[in-house]
Design brief:
There is one protein chain. The protein is 32% helix and 24% strand. The chain is an alpha+beta fold and 435 residues long. The protein folds into two domains: 266 residues, no CATH class; 137 residues, Conserved hypothetical protein from pyrococcus furiosus pfu- 392566-001, domain 2 (2-Layer Sandwich), CATH 3.30.1760. Strands 1, 4, 5, 6, 8, 9, 10, 11 and 12 form a nine-stranded mixed sheet that branches. The longest helix is centred in the middle third of the chain and has 17 residues.
Length: 435
């Protein structure tokens, strides 16, 4: 199964950069246009300059955001802003954060993992990908020859083999320790003892890995390797480009928080909106609950998590009312989805919303993707409809880690934007060079 290995990580030299919280950044896919200038202002060494450089109007094939990122990386290495660890290590990363008033710690192992094609089922995806983000990551990987942010992957540790090996590893002072301005905290230790590393690596020899976050980065690494193989003589099995950096997290980790990407819809014609209720009644039992109901979200949670029921929540169709939609006929709904999908897929909230309601009942085509936005906070999602920014909101319940595993084991993939692992693993703590 999975082959993991240590690596000589690249990380910031704190004696030159100062506060690390000012130099790390989110991974590229969550850096919003509003966040970008703020990250640039934080520090002249903020990692956004490598992870997600700015495009310029005068960009050319030889001078562009990717070549500038590569030049920045080489300059920072030369100046000692970035340093390369001398001894290969497996990095133990404790990520501290709060969500809805509760404090969490998510523990991960930062390693390099041998790249495997999807059909080998060693590394298993659960979501589809888009060409645009994948092309961006391929270009950056080709320019930098580095994995700048780790893919987050899950594994099963039923016998607690891995967790038992990590006991005591966090008792020494950490290599990296910081509290970020967003309330998150990070501690990183380098595990360098050869025997401990060997035992950790052996414990993964019978385990598949399940990609949680970073499907585009993994596929980009596969494409880059294929490109290199096509251009050069045979590549040795231990060549760095045969591996990709991952943060591995136990399925049972108490800090594994998965949020649902709620759907926000706008730009619908009045005819589409006016006919929607009648169409919904063909497939769902509909219950109206006033948004002003005391402890409304507690009430909604009780309804949507009821066993053996597929329930969705729609807001915006009836003023001030949350509509709880209970699916009557799963078989009829499944017939509106591509035939090749698994039964697990057909029972997902997100599958019902995307295929049955958005595609079939509202008639939204793939070319109307711009009408759909995603939000991970349900109150904020509702507020954006109340503010008139959007017409409809579909409130989904979170997908469990067990469902993600079942989808991946079935060789299936969820609809895009089905899960959001919170918080994202940041970029810039430690990364992997392929040279």
């Amino acid at each position: 199964m999975a082959e993991i290995a240590p690596f000589c990580g690249v990380r910031y030299n704190e004696s030159l950069t100062g506060d690390l919280s000012a130099v790390i950044c989110p991974p590229y896919d969550v850096i919003s246009p509003q966040m970008e200038p703020e990250l640039y202002r934080h520090s002249e060494y903020n990692f956004i300059r490598i992870e997600h450089g700015r495009p310029l109007l005068q960009d050319t094939a030889s001078d562009n955001r990717y070549t500038r990122s590569a030049a920045t990386l080489e300059r920072w290495l030369k100046e000692g802003i970035l340093i390369v660890d001398k001894v290969p290590a497996i990095y133990l990363h404790d990520h501290y954060f709060a969500y809805q008033g509760k404090k969490y710690r998510r523990r991960g192992l930062v390693v390099r993992v041998r790249l495997e094609e999807w059909d080998r089922m060693v590394v298993r995806p659960h979501e589809g990908t888009l060409a645009g983000p994948k092309g961006d990551r391929i270009s950056l990987l080709g320019a930098l020859k580095a994995n700048t942010s780790p893919i987050m992957a899950l594994f099963e540790d039923k016998e607690k083999q891995v967790s038992s090996l990590l006991l005591g590893q966090a008792s020494s002072p950490p290599l990296i320790s910081l509290a970020a301005s967003n309330g998150e905290g990070h501690q990183v230790w380098a595990i360098t003892e050869p025997e401990v590393i060997a035992r950790i690596c052996r414990s993964f020899s019978d385990k598949p890995l399940y990609i949680a976050d970073g499907h585009h980065r993994y596929e980009s690494a596969l494409v880059y390797r294929r490109q290199r193989r096509a251009l050069s003589s045979p590549i040795a099995t231990d060549e760095p480009l045969n591996f990709v950096m991952m943060t591995l997290v136990d399925f049972a980790d108490p800090g594994l928080v998965i949020l649902p990407p709620h759907r926000l819809i706008r730009g619908l014609s009045s005819s589409r909106l006016n006919s929607l209720m009648d169409k919904l009644n063909l497939f769902f039992d509909i219950k109206e609950i006033p948004l002003s109901t005391p402890k409304i979200w507690q009430r909604i949670d009780e309804l949507v998590t009821e066993a053996d029921r597929i329930r969705l929540v729609l807001f915006g169709l009836e003023a001030g009312q949350l509509l709880v939609l209970t699916l009557r006929d799963l078989t009829a709904a499944g017939q509106m989805m591509p035939y090749f999908h698994s039964e697990v897929y057909k029972r997902l909230d997100v599958s019902i919303v995307d295929h049955v309601i958005l595609e079939e009942l509202l008639g939204l085509s793939s070319g109307e993707e711009a009408r759909i936005t995603y939000n991970y906070d349900r109150q904020e999602t509702v507020n954006r409809v109340l503010a008139g920014e959007y017409q409809l909101a579909f409130i989904l319940k979170p997908v469990t880690a067990g469902v993600i595993k079942a989808i991946a084991d079935a060789g299936d993939r969820m609809p895009r934007k089905s899960t959001y692992f919170y918080p994202k693993v940041p970029s810039g703590l430690v990364f992997y060079r392929l040279v």
